[in-house]
Amino acid sequence: MLIGVLGLQGDYREHQKLLNELGVESIKVRRASELEKVDALIIPGGESTAMSNLAKSFGLFPALRDFAKAKPVLGTCAGMIMLADDVEGSIPGQEFIGGLPIKVSRNAYGGQTHSFESEVDFGTLKEKVAFIRAPRILDSSKVEVLATLNGEAVAVRSGHLFGASFHPEITGSKFLHNLFLEHCKIAKD
Ligand code: GLN
Asked: Which residues on adjacent β-strands are paired with residue 100?
């Protein structure tokens, strides 16, 4: 199994490091031809406005949208914003991949100075993760909630699309990646 990590912007290297620690092969994806090679995609955290501009100038949106319709995608933080169907606080002209039926609000957990680490509740266990200018999930009524923080959804899944408000890769939390990879294996078989 080969996992692509969208490498336009943000902390794609940390995701690749985590995948490497889990013994999973990955490549950085910047072109449609690279997307064709992978079984699943991770869209990292970073800055969704910059990511959106770069995806536009690389002409990647059509391929990303087709991919997300058919194959597993995990979006963390800015990556989840890119996957969300409804984004509050987007900038004019900002484009998204979409497909994940949630409403998110950009930067709603506060700006850079309000970044924090916290334990999120996956039901069976708690994991320490990082929230950095993190988006809040305002509507999770159409998706499965995978993790909560103070009762609010912070990680969700709808079919083969996964999203999280936080950065698991910064604290080295592997639970979400493992859930995603289990799904990827089933999807590939
Ligand atoms: N607030 C950022 C955005 O809108 C996301 C922050 C992050 O990915 N750490 O893209």
From this structure: 84
